[in-house]
User: Which sequence fits this backbone?
């Protein structure tokens, strides 16, 4: 695999706004070794999310996009959030469990949404370590670098961590199978990762466009909004989850007629954020 990520738009923030899309990649590394097909593994992908926010780059906000698939390694987990049921032998490095291993969705996914195993056998600790070094570490260094560059230049940064979610909860989802989700779910880890005014601005703007919006329910935000945020020091991170039913055919993994409107509305949202920076 070549470089594990791309920075779209300016390489340094021209305004104090940085976006990242950790789950929209679908370049499958040769050493994945999965038992199931690539299209099945793409159920974990936040398809086209990097494209939905393309308007950011023209405003001077860089967008960091992971290129590898999320099922291979999830950069929105702590590097120590290893699923011990996937490891052959003892795990010799830092172990920081989040509890997601029981759902098969820790740093490396163990199962698909329907519970089928992704691998035929356990992986060596060294193989998992290699994925961390090849994907997780450089991605985190890149997002940290962009956030730090904004703080250095502007004394602050507003970070949007961009995701999408199944329109309806699946079998392994924590909000209960069949639950129909809101159009958007904003996550600021219960008001700890950004100024509450930022969450409210995004909520109000999206609601004003006619979308249903929930805050911290069922998603509060995970590692990428937790790790580098510090609202008291001017570092604000907000996770935005978009329902896939707004813009794609989930079964066909294809854009739907709604894609263009949503992309336009997200550009309007970014304009509103820029005015408030
Ligand atoms: Zn995601």
Assistant:
């Amino acid at each position: 695999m070549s470089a594990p990520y791309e920075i779209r738009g300016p390489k340094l923030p021209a305004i104090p706004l940085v976006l990242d899309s950790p789950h929209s990649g679908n370049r499958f590394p040769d050493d994945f070794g999965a038992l199931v097909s690539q299209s099945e593994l793409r159920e974990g992908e936040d398809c086209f999310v990097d494209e939905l926010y393309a308007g950011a780059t023209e405003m001077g906000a860089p967008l960091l996009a992971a290129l590898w698939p999320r099922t291979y390694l999830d950069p929105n987990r702590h590097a120590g959030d290893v699923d011990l049921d996937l490891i052959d032998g003892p795990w010799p490095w830092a172990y920081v469990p989040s509890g997601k291993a029981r759902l098969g969705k820790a740093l490396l996914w163990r199962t698909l949404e329907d519970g089928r195993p992704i691998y035929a056998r356990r992986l060596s600790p060294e193989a998992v370590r290699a994925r961390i070094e090849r994907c997780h570490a450089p991605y985190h260094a890149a997002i940290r670098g962009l956030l730090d560059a904004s703080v250095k230049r502007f004394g602050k940064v507003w970070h949007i961590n961009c995701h999408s979610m199944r329109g309806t909860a699946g079998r392994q989802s924590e909000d209960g199978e069949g639950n129909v989700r809101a159009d958007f779910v904003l996550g600021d880890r219960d008001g700890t990762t950004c100024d509450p005014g930022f969450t409210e601005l995004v909520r109000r703007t999206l609601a004003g466009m006619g979308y249903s919006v929930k805050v911290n329910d069922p998603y509060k935000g995970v590692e990428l909004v937790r790790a580098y945020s510090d609202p008291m020091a001017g570092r604000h991170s907000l996770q935005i989850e978009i329902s896939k039913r707004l813009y794609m055919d989930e079964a066909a993994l294809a854009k739907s007629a709604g894609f263009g409107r949503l992309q336009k509305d997200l550009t309007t949202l970014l304009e509103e954020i820029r005015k408030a920076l």
